[in-house]
Amino acid sequence: MSSQNNAERKRRRNSDANAASGAGEDDTRSDSPGPSSMFPSSPAPFFSEAEYRNEAEEEDLIDNAFADDDEVNDSDNGDIDIFQDAERDYADNERLDNYEQEGVDDTHYEPLDIGARNALDNNLNRRDVEIRRREGRVAGAFIYGLDDDANDTQPAVRRHRHIYEAQELDQDEDGVPEMSLSDLRNMKDSSIAVWITREAVRRGIKREFKDFLQTYVDEHGTSVYGERIRDMGERNKESFEVNYENLADSKIILAYYLSNSPIAMLKILDEVALEVTLLQFPAYERIHREIHVRITDLPVKNTLRELRQSQLNCLIRVSGVVTRRTGVFPQLKWVKFNCGKCNHLLGPFYQDIHNEIKINTCPSCQSKGPFNVNMEQTVYRNYQKLTIQESPGTVPPGRLPRHREVICLWDLIDQAKPGEEIEVIGVYRNNFDASLSTKNGFPVFATIIEANFINKKENMFAAYRLTEDDTKQILAMGKDKRIGKKIMKSIAPSIYGHDDIKRAIALAMFGGVPKNIQGKHIIRGDINILMLGDPGTAKSQFLKYVEKTAHRAVYTTGQGASAVGLTASVHKDPITREWTLEGGALVLADRGVCLIDEFDKMNDADRTSIHEAMEQQSISISKAGIVTTLQARCTVLAAANPIRGRYNSSIPFSQNVELTEPILSRFDVLCVVKDLVDPEQDHILATNVIGSHLRSHPLHNEADQKFAQPKDNDADIINQDLLKKYIMYAREKIQPKLQQVDEDKLSRLYSELRRESLASGSIPITVRHLESMIRLAEAHAKMHLREYVRSDDVDMAIRVALDSFISAQKFSMMKVLRRI
Length: 820
Description:
- This protein is α/β, with parallel strands linked by helices.
- The protein has five domains: about 1-20 and about 45-85, no CATH class; about 120-175, no CATH class; about 180-295, mini-chromosome maintenance (MCM) complex, chain A, domain 1; about 305-455, CATH 2.40.50.140; about 470-815, Rossmann fold, CATH 3.40.50.300.
- Helices cover about 45% and strands about 15% of the residues.
- Strands 3-7-8-10-9 form a five-stranded mixed beta barrel. A five-stranded parallel β-sheet has the order 14-17-20-13-21.
- The radius of gyration is 45 Å and the shape is elongated.
């Protein structure tokens, strides 16, 4: 029965196959398709005719096997041999006994060396990158339409599912396709902060910044940042500087994103910096886990007074004087917690600077705490807070100086200390302050600056940048033989007379050369001046002039200044409850000029506190557990009034003012200003004062020009802006040396001055006065831009020292000394 059924099925299948074959031949001969033919646009059939016949043969084998089983089961007596025709299974079959030859490469290849393998891997990697880029630009349907025809044998639904699975797998391995530089510019309607968070944009930024670090060269063809990274690796540092102007010239879109969304951009740049560093130093990650990019030379510069909400979360560049600095704290970066009940480890969680991480529920035991910080597995970073204040010379008149807090992280800690003027490039951010909101009655955010780069203004070119034309003009002025007289005449030109004070102030503004003896003892180079005289003799006007002319000046009065106001004070931080150090006037005037008016009105205890600052130019602090030393390298220019209101020439200088000998000996030059009655000089003085008022009046016209014109020739007066640049250039570039100095002249003068001071009972002459003459000679050489101190410089120093000594004597001794 079973054999008959199998034979019937074979005949029926053969007839169907012949019918299909005949139909195919008819379709081939006909010009138009018949009812049973496929449309031209239809896909190819799943199986060809040969494959259909092979499939039929396999089904026959299966049917025969089942037929044999049926016969065995139907026969109860068992006369049929179950192993009949078993040898047919072991017969030779060429189709089944041989492997497919198509696609098999039997060529023998020689083994490759390491260099050839690396080259082959690089070629394959470049090909993969190009394929991924092409896939990012071409739709997926077109890409997979180019594959071989083997996948077309699958049904359409299954083929689409395989395509999606392949896309998802490629997404996990390679990420989102990268964007070209032109595509990075097309933000459409997105903001910069949202645009940068996209993975494709991040990969494009990484590729472009990596290309910038590896390909940017200087005019000599040297890799700029390759050298900087190599220098960083040799010094075991964790950051290197990137010039913003270089980035803007090469990759302007990256510079634009960096200035407007620096928080997200700096994270990306730091990741790329680490990758590039590991190319040169593969094991550098063992030294530093992160590399930080420091942005320098940001073209736009703001003052602390100009910061507004439009600069929030943007890159800014500000400058100021450090007034307060906290200690160094370990701040959480990646924090892990342990559940207090099940001890399950949670994290790591990224700890932001402003927001504290809070855990609500344990995923293991579903409890709500408590959660303890795992101290061993938590990653920390260094944290320090600075307070910077507007530089004294940049505060508008009548305004209080503004200040901002600066957050320093990683290797930026201890980069500056109180009293130093710094320039900060960082992110201007807001921080919610509950106490500030309570005080104002509505939500108010405090603002801070998260520093990215800190630059100390050690040089005197902090406020002004000299161009090449300025340098040429300054050098040409230095060759003028009358430049010294011109500079002295240009000091406070609106003040008539007082040539000795103008000469002393000019020398003090140039200053001498500080000396470090074997790295143990420092001899100051700044010149201190004390003016003492009658009221109304323009003493305060001289101080105000120096305040406007000097590059860095701090003005204070003795009546309102205390010891801590002049030196330094200790405060407790309201947030950290830590004692912090805040510099006073002398500390803020470091590398500048400290102007003290009404010097005689200070308390004796307060005046004693500045002894160290005037000679050693440092301030030692030992308060509230803080033991440190602050720098006070500044010129002290003080003005005082006599005891009885007017200067009495019949008594010495020391008896006209309530100042002790230790502090008087710290002044290099003592200037006595007397209001003498002289009709001719009084007339000239009155004419000069009236002319000055007429010239300064807003309704000044040409009719008053003749009367307002001073009688002296103004051709020698130097423009004040040019004078500032000249003084800064001389202080920074010129360091005259003592050579071929007449030592016998100085030693004889010193011995004679000591003898006369002892005989007259006036101010005693000490070794400090000898050092003062050396400083005055160096300052005069600086004034002429000379590299060495000459004899005429020494003569000028002796002249100033003698005028100071003689004017401090009583009238009788003064007449004797002047005749000598």
